[in-house]
Amino acid sequence: VRAYSDFTGFKNTQRRTVPFWVNHISDLIDKRSNDLSSLKPNFEVVPPADNITETTRKASRVVRPILSNIRNFNNLDLLFDENERGNVLYGTSFLSVEWNEKIGDRKVPKKGKKKDKDDDEVAWEGEVEVKQIFPWHILPFPARVAYTAPISIQIYETLHVDEARIKYNDKSIQPDNRTNLFSFASPFEGDILPEEVVIYRTICIPNQFMPEGAIIYSTYDGTVLKKFVDKYPYSHGGFPWEMHTDVTAYGSPFPYSIMNNLKPMQWTYNLLGGMIKKAIFLTAHPKWMVTRGSCNIQSLANAITIVQHKAGQRPELARYDVV
Known about the structure:
Oligomer: single chain
Number of helices: 5
């Protein structure tokens, strides 16, 4: 008997160890994720239907290679494959789509413009960055339907305290002095070092109560590092990530993976396989049926099973048909 924790990590019951284990779920996860990732996303850039002119046609032809460059720069084909696998494993996956001014091509100073001697920071052109976010780093506010609340808290990044002080220009930032990222039971790894600090990003998308929305960067102790409360920085008015779910049950607060439905079948398969294996082992070997005390058991080979009984029956070598 061993301690068993289910996928949520909140239960701790006792289950009998299965003596026979064949993990078919792993093969099914690989097959499902490969099948889904084989459907590559595609796009077309066309002029708006109400404004088809030569200028908009030229703009469409110019924008298409720019978007293709963004796709190649972020290695989106591999990213989409990993995203589909994460979606099958956890039931939810996220892709962040944001502008990063610290990547892209390096800026070249214009002719005749001298660089400031005190300016040691490297300047970059900036680029659209697409990256995967762990689903357990997005903490949405509770809602009756999954992820419909206008507010979410994101575990944005984990930095060394000195790095955080330089990046956010705040010398008052202190380390979290903890080793666990989550304060609740979680099946996911979330260990941090005592000298590190976790940066949280609270996002409230524009709604009827906060028309301008808000984005606030803060630390574990509540120190606000920077905020955007006057104007929402994303023109689409939504969260800066795209969410992909596997199975979303109406009324359920969180989506789940379809593989959860296969766990009982996998457990039953392993249980039946273990019973068949045990039956084969019990019947595949010959057994000595001897009267208790009639012979020295130690002198017999250990490979042969011995069944002792009371007097009244002669010793017999019992054999069984092979299953």
